[in-house]
Amino acid sequence: MAQSDAPEYVTRADTTPVDDLTGTAFAHLDVRTLVSDARQGSEKTMVGRTVYPGNGGTHEHHLHPDAEEVVIVLSGRGWHRVGDEYYEIGPGDVVFVPVDTAHSAGSIGPEDMVILWVLGGVPSLERAGYQAVPEVPGIPAG
Questions:
Q1: Is 19 part of any domain?
Q2: How far apart are the first and last CA of the chain?
Q3: Assigned domain for 6 exists
Q4: Statement: the pTM of the whole predicted model exceeds 0.85
Q5: What CATH code is carried by the domain that includes residue 65?
Q6: Dihedral sign of CA atoms 116, 117, 122, 128 in order
């Protein structure tokens, strides 16, 4: 098999193109799909990286009716709301979001917050499902 035909088992976030999320609540973020059904033929896992700009970069409150999510903070500081609970997060922290649970996140301070996220049990956002839910008051602006 020629090297160009080999499955993509190693993905580099810095050379992966930014996802085209034009017209979505995530269009202002640097989101890159690293593992998915479309990219590697994954059957049960989707992985991505998101960069939240410093000083309050955020995304809308939402849930995935058909997938769990795990968020791993690589750098920067921020917050994550899971259900009714609010958490401050930083490098090395891991956030677990159960199936069908509303969540949102954002950066705190001047440094960008960089996260890896994993959707469990599904290979794509389409299979995870996505539903925006009303914003929960009390989230800091940054």
A1: no
A2: 50
A3: no
A4: yes
A5: 2.60.120.10
A6: negative
